[in-house]
Every structure is written in C-alpha cells, then in structure tokens.
C-alpha cells in the first residue's frame, strides 16, 4: 500500500512540475511577444490625399500672377489704370475692366454693353441664345443695371493665351450686340469679312503677349 501511495505521489509531482513548466514557458513566450511588439515600430496608416505633398509649380505649370497679368494688360491695352488687383484700360476704343481676386482664385474681364432700361423679353431671349451658340468663352450678363460682356476664369490656371483670347472675345461680344451677338472666336468663312476682322482682333491680342 505504501508503495502504491508513493507511486501516485511521484506521478502527481511530475504532472505538477510539467504544469508549472508549461505556465512559465507560456509566460515567457507572452513576454517575448510583448517585447517584440514594443520594439517593432508602429505601422503608419496610408497618407490621406490631403496629407500628400503638393505638386510643384513645374508640374502644374507656372500659375498666373498679378505681376504677369499686369504685364499682359499693359501690352494689350491703352490708358491703363491699376488699383490693387483691378485695372481699367482701353482696347479698340472700348473701355475694359479686369477684376481679380487671388484669395478666391478668380479673374473676370468686363466690357459694358448697354443700360438695362428698355430691355424686353425678346432681347433677353436673344442674349441667352447667343450664350449657347455664338458667345463661346465670353457671355452676356446683367449687373448694376447694366448689360455686360464678361469672361470669367480661375486665376491660377489662367494662361497668357486664354486671357488674351478672352479679352478679344468680350470686346467682340460687346461690339456685335444687336447684330451677330458673337465673340468672333470662330469664323465659318463664306466671305464674311466682318467675322474675319473680329477674329483678327483676337489674333492681334494673342501676338501682343508673345514677347512676355
């Protein structure tokens, strides 16, 4: 009987030793894993699009600046008067206003056409029709009791050719009010000398910016 009890006690001691060893081994592995996690650098989440570095000016193309806009206006216009980021000048005997806002990233060219008094529904319909067919990049608009010919564009992405073409189109749209209502950008031929002359104004303005 004593022998049997001794054997059972020996078996229990061995099982207990194995259990204790297993606990220590598990604790050691857990501690090693925890240490590995602490030593390993934390993975950074993918950068959001807003966190990425901005494209350089070279990649985007040089943005339009107020200084460059001023140079273009002085080459194309006469009697130029500047106040801050706005200009008043003349081209082809038409008074032009250019208003820019770098913070809002906007630029607009305005040419007065006529007073709104006496403007009937039929004439308004014709102005809207021109906006679809012949005004192209310019447009007719109403503000301050006046009808205007306007060209509107973001400032930063505006290039020299777009500005000078827009300038010519607004002038043509003002000059052809009551007749063809056209910006003159496209000429369909057919012996239309007047259309070629309006296109010539745009070409001359584009050439004025070549040397800048």
Radius of gyration, in angstroms, nearest whole number: 38 Å
- Strand arrangement within the widest β-sheet reads 1-2-3-4-6-5
The rough form would be described as globular
Please identify, by name, the CATH architecture of the largest domain. Answer: 2-Layer Sandwich
Sheet/helix structural class: alpha+beta
**Helix-strand string:** HHHEEEEHEEHH
User: What share of the residues lie within helices?
Assistant: 40-55%
Account of the protein in words:
The chain starts with a helix and ends with a helix. The protein folds into 2 domains: 1-43; 59-208, 2-Layer Sandwich (Yope Regulator, Chain: A), CATH 3.30.1460. 46% of the residues lie in helices and 21% in strands. The protein is built from 6 helices and 6 strands; from the N terminus they run αααββββαββαα. The chain has a 6-stranded antiparallel sheet. By secondary structure, it is an alpha+beta fold.
Features of this protein?
Yope Regulator, Chain: A; alpha+beta; 212 residues; globular
Strand and helix map with partners:
Blueprint: H1 2-39, H2 57-60, H3 66-76, E1 78-83, E2 86-91, E3 94-101, E4 106-115, H4 121-133, E5 139-143, E6 146-154, H5 160-175, H6 193-208
Helix pairs in contact: 5-6
